[in-house]
C-alpha cells in the first residue's frame, strides 16, 4: 500500500519506522536516534510514541483537518448562498453584499459545493455547458464571420480619444473576418474580406479547405450559424461537392459554435483592439503575423500548447 507523505516531511514512512524501531525495540535513547536520522529529538520521540500506540500503521501522516470548525459558516446560511446562486445567478460579490458576508467567504462556499463558474453556465437554462472535443482533426470545423468597424485614416478613438475618434469614424466601413477553426486542434484559418455574401463565404471556404488539406486535415463536417450566406444553395453545393456534411447551430444558441466564438474573442482582444492602430492598413498588416503566432506559438490552455502541437504536418507552413 502506498501512503502520501507531507511535502515538508523530513522522513518517509520507511524512515520513520526505522527510527521508531531503534528507540522502541533496540533501546536507543531518542537523542541518539535523532542524531542518526538527522531530526530533532522531539520528532524522534513523537514517532516512537506513535509506534508504541499504533505500530507500523502509525508511521503515515495523519489528517491535519480539524475535528471541529466552530467558525465555519452555518449550514443554513450556506444553503442561502447556494439558493441565490441557482435562482439569481449572482457572483460572490453580489451574494456577499446581499447576505452581509465577505465575497471571499461566499467564494469558498461555492467552491466547496463545486458550483460551476457563471461563465460556464448556459444563460437561458442556468445549466453547466457541456464541453466537448472531437477525437480527430477534421471531424468538425467551426466557421463564422466576425464584423469589425474599419479604423479611419489617422486612427480611431483608441488612438485619438473618443471625442476626436467619433469625427473620424463615419464612412470608414466594415471588415468581415471569415474564420474557420478545427475543433480538435484549434488550428485556425482566417481572411479579411469586404462583405459576408454567399459568394465571399463560398470562396473563403474553398481556400480554407485547401489550407486544411495541405496540412493533412481531411474535413468531414462543418458547423455554422444560420446566417443567410450559410443557408444558401451555393454554400450547400460547395460543401456537398467536397463530400462534407453541413451542420447548423440551433437558433439563438451561439455557444454551440463556441470554439470559433472563442477564437473571435481572442482575435479582438489580442489583435484588433490590442493597440492603438493609426489606420486600417496598419492593423491588417499586423494580422498575418498575429495569426501565425496564434497557430504556432500561443499557448492554448484547453490543449496544453499551441494548435501546431496537434498538427504533425504544420511545420513551416502558413
What would you say this structure looks like, in words?
The protein is of the alpha/beta class and 318 residues long. It has three domains: 13-58; 75-120; 141-310, Nucleotidyltransferase, domain 5 (2-Layer Sandwich), CATH 3.30.420. It is 43% helix and 10% strand. The protein contains twelve helices and five strands. It has helices at residues 13-24, 30-37, 41-54, 75-88, 92-99, 103-112, 157-160, 162-169, 198-214, 233-241, 258-272, 280-296; strands spanning 141-149, 174-182, 188-193, 221-224, 245-248. It has a five-stranded mixed sheet with strand order 3-2-1-4-5, sandwiched between helices. Strand 4, helix 10 and strand 5 (245-248) form a beta-alpha-beta unit.
List the helices and strands and how they pair.
Elements: H1 13-24, H2 30-37, H3 41-54, H4 75-88, H5 92-99, H6 103-112, E1 141-149, H7 157-160, H8 162-169, E2 174-182, E3 188-193, H9 198-214, E4 221-224, H10 233-241, E5 245-248, H11 258-272, H12 280-296
Q: What is the residue-averaged pLDDT?
A: 86
Query: What is the CATH class of the largest domain?
Result: Alpha Beta
Sheet bearing the most strands, described?
A: 5 strands, mixed
| The CATH fourth-level homologous superfamily of the largest domain | Ribonuclease H-like superfamily/Ribonuclease H
Task: Please tell me how large the radius of gyration is.
Answer: 30 Å
Residue windows where pLDDT falls under 50 for at least 5 positions: none
N- and C-termini, Cα separation: 52 Å
Amino acid at each position: 500500500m502506498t501512503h502520501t507523505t507531507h511535502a515538508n516531511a523530513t522522513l518517509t514512512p520507511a524512515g520513520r519506522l526505522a527510527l521508531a524501531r531503534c528507540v522502541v525495540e533496540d533501546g536507543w535513547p531518542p537523542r541518539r536516534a535523532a542524531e542518526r536520522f538527522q531530526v530533532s529529538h522531539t520528532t524522534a520521540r513523537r514517532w516512537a510514541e506513535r509506534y508504541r500506540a499504533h505500530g507500523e500503521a502509525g508511521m503515515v501522516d495523519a489528517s491535519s483537518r480539524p475535528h471541529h470548525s466552530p467558525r465555519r459558516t452555518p449550514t443554513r446560511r450556506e444553503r442561502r448562498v447556494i439558493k441565490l446562486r441557482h435562482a439569481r445567478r449572482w457572483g460572490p460579490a453580489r451574494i456577499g453584499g446581499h447576505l452581509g458576508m465577505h465575497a471571499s467567504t461566499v467564494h469558498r462556499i461555492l467552491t466547496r459545493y463545486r458550483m460551476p463558474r457563471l461563465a460556464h453556465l448556459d444563460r437561458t437554462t442556468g445549466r453547466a455547458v457541456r464541453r466537448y472535443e472531437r477525437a480527430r482533426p477534421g471531424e468538425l470545423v467551426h466557421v463564422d464571420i466576425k464584423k469589425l468597424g474599419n479604423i479611419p485614416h489617422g486612427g480611431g478613438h483608441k488612438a485619438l480619444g473618443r471625442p476626436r475618434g467619433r469625427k473620424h469614424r463615419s464612412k470608414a466601413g466594415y471588415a468581415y473576418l471569415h474564420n474557420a477553426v478545427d475543433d480538435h486542434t484549434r488550428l485556425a484559418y482566417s481572411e479579411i474580406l469586404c462583405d459576408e455574401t454567399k459568394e465571399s463565404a463560398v470562396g473563403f471556404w474553398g481556400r480554407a479547405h485547401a489550407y486544411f488539406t495541405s496540412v493533412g486535415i481531411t474535413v468531414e463536417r462543418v458547423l455554422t450559424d444560420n446566417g443567410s450566406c450559410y443557408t444558401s444553395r451555393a454554400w450547400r453545393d460547395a460543401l456537398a461537392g467536397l463530400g462534407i456534411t453541413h451542420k447548423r447551430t440551433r437558433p439563438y444558441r451561439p455557444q454551440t459554435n463556441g470554439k470559433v466564438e472563442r477564437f473571435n474573442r481572442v482575435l479582438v482582444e489580442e489583435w484588433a483592439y490590442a493597440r492603438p492602430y493609426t489606420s486600417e492598413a496598419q492593423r491588417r498588416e499586423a494580422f498575418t503575423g498575429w495569426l501565425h503566432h496564434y497557430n504556432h506559438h500561443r499557448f492554448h490552455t484547453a490543449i496544453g500548447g499551441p494548435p501546431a502541437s496537434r498538427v504533425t504536418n504544420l511545420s513551416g507552413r502558413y
